[in-house]
TrEMBL record:
The lineage of its organism: Bacteria, Bacillati, Actinomycetota, Actinomycetes, Streptosporangiales. SUPFAM superfamilies: Bet v1-like, ISP domain. PANTHER family: CHOLINE MONOOXYGENASE, CHLOROPLASTIC. It comes from Streptosporangium brasiliense. Gene3D superfamilies: Naphthalene 1,2-dioxygenase Alpha Subunit, Chain A, domain 1 (3.90.380.10), Rieske [2Fe-2S] iron-sulphur domain (2.102.10.10). The keyword Iron-sulfur applies. This is Rieske 2Fe-2S family protein. CDD domains: RHO_alpha_C_GbcA-like (cd08884), Rieske_RO_Alpha_N (cd03469).
Length: 376
């Protein structure tokens, strides 16, 4: 047996270069992040007309805002005159317009060009043609999803379909009323690792017994190394002594009203390709949005969402938040431990997947198919 033909229980991963090569990353930006639906902003963060956020989607900066009619709009963050970035802050609020800081071309919240110095001297300038370049927008689960493609893929199949495939039915996630929950806590992680390492890590639980003592304490079946994601519709059951999905197994907060008896005392994890992880437990929902910034760097915004009443009455969210914050820190440290080694000669042909990780190969095949023959 040679190193290039592993025994049947082991399957090859992607080669190390796929995690370090900026050319591969550029292809991923073009063919994955700029071509698919990208979960960008919590809609409630755009509280009123003129509130905005800027987000990196693939190679583009996108300006996401709320128009006067209350709808969410998104535009490439590029002035149509000579290309200045309209806004460089991560978030803020304007009253009525975005005014370019360079020569003061001014756009309204619908992206129309409404003013510019000496505009009267240019009667042939078609204002409609020089509005900001729009980006497709959808709202689901209380988030703003963007698509930079001219012709976006079907949202229902690609995004909602990912959840249905994992859970077996759409109603299951609807029970949590995710769109009406409120952000109780948000933590942003700046991870020095390739985004695919984060996806692979989220998909498997072979590492759970080694690095997640608190999580395994709450979900004892995870000690066996099989992720809940391996089985359609499966939610990992809380341990018999566990009272809640908290760092010490203590009682959490009030159960989300729509959650069924079947779903109670269970944890469901869902990956929505390419950059979203959803975690459902009876009293809260945890959503990760990844923003891949380079081959070796991924920013993750993680929201802990609770029922509005729980947040408003100031319930103690600490033990609930602390559990998955520790899981995140443990997972991201593991990914950062792998990232430098992706460039090693020892990993030039990649590593291997054990049987409880074999489903990750489908993710690798999906990435390769998106990238096309040039990447193989
Ligand atoms: S670049 Fe924006 S007004 Fe000139
Ligand atoms: Fe993990």
């Amino acid at each position: 047996m040679t190193a290039s033909s592993p025994p049947p229980s082991l399957i090859a991963t992607l080669p190390g270069g796929h995690y370090t090569d900026e050319r591969v990353f550029a292809l991923e930006q073009e063919r994955i992040f700029e071509s698919m639906w990208f979960c960008a902003v919590r809609a409630a963060d755009l509280g009123r007309p003129g509130a905005f956020r800027t987000v990196q989607v693939g190679r583009e900066s996108v300006l996401v805002t709320r128009a006067r009619d209350g709808s969410v709009r998104a535009f490439l963050n590029v002035c149509r005159h000579r290309g200045a970035r309209l806004r460089t802050e991560e978030s803020g609020e304007v009253r009525r317009t975005f005014r370019c800081p360079y020569h003061a071309w001014t756009y309204d919240l619908e992206g129309r060009l409404v003013a510019a110095p000496n505009l009267a001297a240019m009667p042939d300038l078609d204002r409609a043609a020089y509005g900001l370049v729009g980006v497709h927008v959808r709202e689901w689960l209380g988030y703003v999803w963007l698509c930079l493609a001219d012709d976006p893929p079907p949202f229902e199949a690609d995004v909602v379909g990912a959840v249905v495939t994992r859970l077996g039915e759409e109603g299951l996630i609807e029970n949590y009323g995710v769109g009406d929950l409120e952000v109780g806590r948000r933590i942003v992680y700046d991870v020095k690792a390739n985004w695919k390492l984060l996806v692979e890590n989220f998909m498997e639980c072979y590492h759970c017994a080694t690095i997640h003592p608190e999580l395994v304490g709450v979900l004892p079946e995870f000690a066996g190394g099989y992720a809940a994601q391996s089985f359609v519709g499966h939610g990992a059951r809380f341990g018999a002594e566990v009272r809640g999905f908290t760092v010490d197994g203590s009682q959490g907060v009030d159960r989300i009203p729509g959650v069924s008896e079947d779903q109670d005392r269970r944890y469901y994890a869902i990956t929505i390709r390419p950059q979203v992880f959803v975690n459902l437990v009876p009293d809260h929902v945890i959503i990760h949005r990844m923003f891949p910034l380079s081959a070796g760097r991924t920013v993750v915004e993680c929201d802990w969402l609770f029922h509005r009443d729980v947040v408003e009455r100031g319930a103690d969210l600490g033990p609930s938040v602390e559990l998955f914050h520790r899981v995140n820190a443990q997972d991201f440290a593991a990914c950062e431990r792998c990232q430098p080694a992706m460039a090693s000669r020892a990993y030039a042909r990649g590593g291997v997947l054990v049987p409880s990780e074999h489903h990750i190969r489908a993710f690798h095949d999906w990435v390769l198919a998106r990238l096309g023959p040039a990447s193989a």
